[in-house]
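ok, trying the design again with the full structure, not the truncated one.
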């Protein structure tokens, strides 16, 4: 398969590349074998032998989005139930929905099938999923993600402590055995080739308040034995942080670390109550910065700005500080703690929250209570749209440990095809308007080639939606429904 056209990507934080008139070749296994300007000598040779599909002007390929944190069963009530503090919300809404799907596999399949379809529509090519307690229900989730064709890390939730007596595993040993059984069964069922093995198990202790030390220790050992990835929640809300400190006498970081659950394979969601002044460190008395500590451990963070507004309202995630410490950071929707399944919403919210943080910092500077330097680099606390696009694409891929997120030889061809402007109609697509181009007298569609600008991509970032998404490709395969 061969395409010729415009490619957009973020190879580094804050850097946007618009590669106009490039040629890409994808082999039968879905890997990129050639990626160069269409007028290079090797590209010309390829074009002599093969006829590429030419993207129309105003259209480009972009790496798909990566959602690092999503509770699949909570998609059942997406958009409802955001009226309580975190621990109360879990008991009233989250546990109830997860228990319902564990009882009703028909409903579970319906919910998970629709979830997969919605993710494709939203441009999400890879997702890290929390499931439920029951292994069979999580296998349904894995089957539906494999069927829709996106990359998925599926986690059977582990918890031997619960405020809901009907939704808990009977002991730590039972929970550890169940996690092992689910992961092995998923690996066994997933007998696809390397190219098509899209779904993987992920060790999933829900969070410290629902897991005994014995369970955490066993799950850390299981991950180390199997090489499976790990996901959980860390320092999400004030009530959760206070509960852990009161009951365990420590903060989340030392608890997870001593059980071997902060590793280069780990993604921790939220981390809103971590800051460079935190002392939540294990066996590192010389360090006062938990972000530097997480970077040293290789642990990634899933930043979920929308749900943080609801459940961490008094504290915003220190995104700029985490990035300056070179922590791997990506974005998550946190359905249903966040109400939007669209990573574009997460990007926009992340920028908005960071701008509020910067405004608050500048106010402290004006009042003389803080120096002008925001952090160790002196950069403002605000992030811009290009930085958020990096987090949604390559940043998220790096956190997941997948080779997606950028177009290069040897990487899988994962892409979303975005159309901003229709030259034949001389109109923007969906909610986008480009008045200067509409006024052009151009009659030849080819004269619109090379028209894509940074400003046009920014306009899509601000106002675009699924109407601009013409297609989704994962591992070289065009997904149905895209």
């Amino acid at each position: 398969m061969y395409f010729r056209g415009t490619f957009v990507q973020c190879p580094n934080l804050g850097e946007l590349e618009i590669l106009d008139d490039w040629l890409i070749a994808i082999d039968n296994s879905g890997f990129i074998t050639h990626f160069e300007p269409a007028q290079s000598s090797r590209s010309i040779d390829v074009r002599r032998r093969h006829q590429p599909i030419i993207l129309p002007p105003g259209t480009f390929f972009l790496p798909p989005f990566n959602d690092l944190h999503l509770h699949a069963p909570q998609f059942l009530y997406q958009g409802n139930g955001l009226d309580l503090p975190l621990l109360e919300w879990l008991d009233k809404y989250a546990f109830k929905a997860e228990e319902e799907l564990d009882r009703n596999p028909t409903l579970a399949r319906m919910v998970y099938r629709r979830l997969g379809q919605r993710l494709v529509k939203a441009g999400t090519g890879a997702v890290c999923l929390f499931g439920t307690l029951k292994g069979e229900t999580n296998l349904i989730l894995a089957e539906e993600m494999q069927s829709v064709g996106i990359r998925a890390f599926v986690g059977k939730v582990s918890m031997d402590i619960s405020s809901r007596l009907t939704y808990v595993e009977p002991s730590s040993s039972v929970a550890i055995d169940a996690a092992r059984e689910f992961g092995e069964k998923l690996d066994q069922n997933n007998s696809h080739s390397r190219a098509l093995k899209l779904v993987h198990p992920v060790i999933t202790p829900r969070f410290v308040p629902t897991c005994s030390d014995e369970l955490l220790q066993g799950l850390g050992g299981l991950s180390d034995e199997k090489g499976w990835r790990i996901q959980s929640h860390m320092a999400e809300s004030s009530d959760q942080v206070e509960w852990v400190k009161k009951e365990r006498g420590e903060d989340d970081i030392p608890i997870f670390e001593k059980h071997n659950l902060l590793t280069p394979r780990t993604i921790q969601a939220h981390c809103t109550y971590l800051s460079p002044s935190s002392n939540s460190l294990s066996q590192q008395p010389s360090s006062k910065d938990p972000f530097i500590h997480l970077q040293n451990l290789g642990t990634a963070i899933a930043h979920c700005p929308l749900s943080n507004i609801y459940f961490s309202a008094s504290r915003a995630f220190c995104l700029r500080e985490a990035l300056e410490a070179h922590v791997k950071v990506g974005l998550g929707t946190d359905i249903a703690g966040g109400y939007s399944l669209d990573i574009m919403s997460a990007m926009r919210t992340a920028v908005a929250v960071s701008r509020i943080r910067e405004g608050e910092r500048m106010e402290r500077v004006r009042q003389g209570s803080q120096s002008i330097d925001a952090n160790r680099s002196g950069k403002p606390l605000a992030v811009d749209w290009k930085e958020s696009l990096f987090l949604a694409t390559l940043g998220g891929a790096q956190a997941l440990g997948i080779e997606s997120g950028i177009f290069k030889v040897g990487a899988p061809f994962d892409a979303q095809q975005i159309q901003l402007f229709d030259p034949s109609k001389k109109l923007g697509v969906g909610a986008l308007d480009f008045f200067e181009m509409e006024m052009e007298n151009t009659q030849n569609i080819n004269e619109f080639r090379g028209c894509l600008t940074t400003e046009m991509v920014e306009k899509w970032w601000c106002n675009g939606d699924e109407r601009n998404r013409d297609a989704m490709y994962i591992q070289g395969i065009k997904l149905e429904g895209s």
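Keeping the full-length input from now on. The chain has a mean pLDDT of 92.
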